[in-house]
Design a protein that fits this description.
Blueprint lengths: L1 H11 L2 H48 L14 H12 L1 H6 E7 L5 E4 L13 H7 L4 E4 L8 H6 L3 E9 L6 E10 L1 H105 L2 H4 L5 H29 L9 H16 L3 E4 L9 H22 L3 E8 L2 E8 L14 H12 L3 E6 L4 E8 H6 L1
Parallel strand pairs: 6-7
Antiparallel strand pairs: 1-2, 1-5, 3-4, 4-5, 7-8, 8-10, 9-10
Helix pairs in contact: 2-7, 7-9, 7-12, 10-11, 11-12
EC number: 2.7.13.3
InterPro entries: HATPase_C_sf, HATPase_dom, Sensor_HK_TwoCompSys, Sig_transdc_His_kin_sub3_dim/P
Catalytic activity: ATP + protein L-histidine = ADP + protein N-phospho-L-histidine
């Protein structure tokens, strides 16, 4: 369980942080490896150059004192004393801690330590290299058996193995081993090491900083793109959710509108049946009466009967026209919102003879035809309900708040409890469905005295519907 958590935590980090961690570790490891390699090469080069200079100087001093090493198996006392005097005094005496002359079989031909003369030791790698004709040198590496005296000295020593060549043949006949006291060399070597490490560390730091800047810039771009993409996905998800909600609302509204249309048709049929149809049927029956078609009667009675039939037919025609005027919309496609409100209020005044106060906003509002029809039907139905149930004064108020247009129809009646209105109420249910199908809101506020029916539409959404 711990490893997946660590992996998940690691993957959750930004690319910049991951690069800084991994790149930092790799850079440090690379710096250590490169620094160690370059330092080793510089140490070898400095040691070899310094040893070559010292070997050349010692060889120029010592070589004239040596006999023919090709035929001599040992140094006589004269040569030994000459070497003692030369190596023990002057510049060489101050620079050299010890000096040995080796034969190819590992025998010490000469040493400033008399106890070492004549002893035989295994050939070290440096001696083998020198007998092969190449100079060998190392600094403070006193691991050989014969180096016990030098180890006890506790001084920085440059150990040099230099081949002794026969002048006329160039053949290696012996190897001179000497140890130079190397305080100056140690200081120079330490300074070279410090400069090397500083150069490697500086180059690594600049290289890593440059890469980090590039990666940080790329990571920032990727993070910005990722954030923008995530924001787009969230926006699309929100839009899909809204579209789904709107689709469900439209579907419910369509089903509700179908049911409401059927209910409206039944109500219109009932109005026609209970009103004009009854009056026409009454007139038809009176036309078949004996007063009109029977035996002659009093002319006055007949005129009275005909007048009654005409009045019944006139009333039926008036009711039919009233029903038709409520079904047919005026030409409102090119009208403004204030003109639509004025026409709706004017039609209600003519139909009912009531007084309606109208207050509109001076700011013009652009609405789609479907939104204009919704506003007209809202005011028409709300005023009819207020006239039928509320009584008293009626008021129509239109306001514009930001991008939302609000229309209110109020009365001064006794009010009612909106919770008592069932979903089968044609007027209020139809208004709610009309308004919500356009993305608007429908509200009813009722408290004695008075009732307010309010609709709100977003002008931007209403322009697109």
């Amino acid at each position: 369980m711990r490893r997946p958590n660590l992996i998940s935590k690691w993957n959750s980090q930004s690319l910049a942080k991951q690069f800084l961690v991994i790149g930092g570790v790799v850079s440090i490891v690379a710096m250590l490896l490169v620094g160690a390699f370059v330092t080793r090469m510089i140490e070898d080069a400095v040691t070899r150059n310094s040893a070559a200079t010292t070997a050349l100087y010692v060889d120029s001093v010592v070589a004239p004192l040596l006999p023919d090493m090709q035929t001599s198996e040992a140094l006589d006392d004269t040569v030994a004393r000459a070497l003692d005097e030369t190596l023990g005094q002057g510049a060489l005496g101050d620079r050299l801690l010890s000096f040995r002359l080796w034969r190819s079989d590992g025998t010490v031909l000469y040493s400033n330590d008399r106890a070492m003369v004549g002893k035989r030791f295994p050939l070290s790698d440096e001696l083998k290299t020198a007998f092969a004709g190449k100079m060998a040198a190392q600094f403070n590496d006193l691991d050989d058996v014969e180096d016990e005296t030098e180890r006890l000295a506790g001084k920085p020593l440059l150990e040099i193995y230099n081949p002794v060549l026969q002048p006329w043949s160039g053949q290696v006949v012996a190897v001179s081993e000497f140890y130079e006291i190397a305080y100056d060399f140690q200081h120079s070597l330490n300074r070279a090491r410090l400069h090397t490490w500083l150069a490697v560390a500086g180059f690594t730091l600049v290289f890593f900083a440059t890469l980090s800047a590039i990666v940080l810039r790329g990571s920032r771009t990727i993070e910005n793109q990722r954030h923008a993409l995530r924001q787009r996905i969230d926006d699309l998800s929100a839009l899909l959710a809204q579209n789904e909600a709107l689709r469900e609302r439209v579907q419910r509204a369509s089903e509700r509108v179908t049911a409401l249309n059927e209910s409206h048709l039944r109500r219109i049929g009932a109005d026609l049946h209970d009103g004009p149809a009854q009056l026409i049927a009454y007139a038809s029956l009176r036309l078949d009466s004996r007063t009109v078609v029977g035996s002659p009667t009093s002319p006055a009675r007949r005129e009275q009967e005909i007048a009654s039939i005409k009045a019944s037919l006139d009333e039926a025609m008036h009711e039919i026209r009233t029903i038709c005027s409520g079904l047919v919309l005026p030409q409102i496609e090119a009208a403004s919102l204030s003109e639509i409100l004025e026409r709706s209020v004017h039609a209600h005044r003519q139909r009912t003879g009531t007084v309606v106060d109208l207050v509109t906003s001076s700011t013009s509002v652009c609405l789609s035809p479907s939104a204009k029809i919704c506003v007209y039907r809202f005011v028409q139905e709300a005023l009819n309900n207020a006239h039928r149930h509320g009584g008293g004064g009626q008021h129509v108020i239109q306001r514009l708040q930001g991008r939302c247009v609000t229309v209110e129809v109020a009365d001064d009646g006794p009010g009612f409890n909106p919770d008592d209105v069932g979903p089968t109420s044609l007027g209020l249910a139809g208004l709610r469905e009309r308004v919500e199908s356009l993305g608007g809101t429908f509200e009813i506020t009722s408290a004695a005295p008075g009732t307010i029916v309010r609709m709100t539409l977003n002008t931007e959404e209403a322009e697109q519907v």
